[in-house]
Amino acid sequence: MMNETEELILQPSRKKWAGLLLFCLLLCVVGGMMIREGKTAGWFPLVAFGIGAVVSVIVMLPRAGYLRLDRTGFTFCSLYRVSRFRWSDVTEFGLGFNKLVSFNFSPCYTKHQRMREVNRAIGGFDAALPDSYGMKPEDLAVLMMEWMASNQASEATSEPAPGAASSAPQG
């Protein structure tokens, strides 16, 4: 069993994002060459892959993306936007649409109901992690399940996360 202070922090694969950056820059050059030849269709790859290049650079900046697992739950950050969930908020992890590590929320987690319905219709899960953090998606899903199983019992005495329904009497 993991001790109370143990945590695991995973970072996005810099190699993957650097490769995507180079690919996007190459297609920006192709778009620029098309524009230079008078082809207005060149604006599409220039703009679309220019945005992809910018996103790739941002993802590689410090603290722009990570996955933190600890005894109470998991936190992921994508483009500096942080999402935090307790292990009790989640019932399962698996591979969803496009081999993303996805998860379903427990019935007591009440936030984002409409978005969860849309996500389930598209990918079969309520939500997904934005990256595989340098791991094979299958291995990351197993790791998440292991951490959840190891830590749900110790979390039972903790307060519910924001958005989780409380079973405590109101008084």
Main features:
171 residues, alpha+beta, four-stranded antiparallel beta sheet, three-stranded antiparallel beta sheet, 4 helices, 7 strands, disordered C terminus
Order of helices and strands: EHHEEEEEHEH
Number of helices: 4
**Strand-residue fraction?**
15-25%
Q: What is the number of beta strands?
A: 7
- Provide the number of structural domains: 2
Walk across the major sheet and give the strand order. Answer: 1-2-3-4
Mean pLDDT: 85
Which spans of ≥5 residues are poorly predicted at pLDDT below 50?
A: 161-171
Secondary-structure topology with pairs:
Layout: E1 7-10, H1 14-36, H2 43-59, E2 65-70, E3 73-78, E4 81-86, E5 90-95, E6 101-105, H3 113-123, E7 127-128, H4 137-155
Helix pairs in contact: 1-2
Structure notes:
The protein has 171 residues and is an alpha+beta fold. Helices cover 41% and strands 20% of the residues. It has four helices and seven strands, in the order E-H-H-E-E-E-E-E-H-E-H. It has two domains: 7-59; 65-155. Mean pLDDT is 85; it is low at 161-171. The chain has a four-stranded antiparallel β-sheet with strand order 1-2-3-4. A hairpin with a 5-residue loop joins strand 5 and strand 6. The longest helix is centred in the N-terminal third of the chain and has 23 residues, at 14-36.
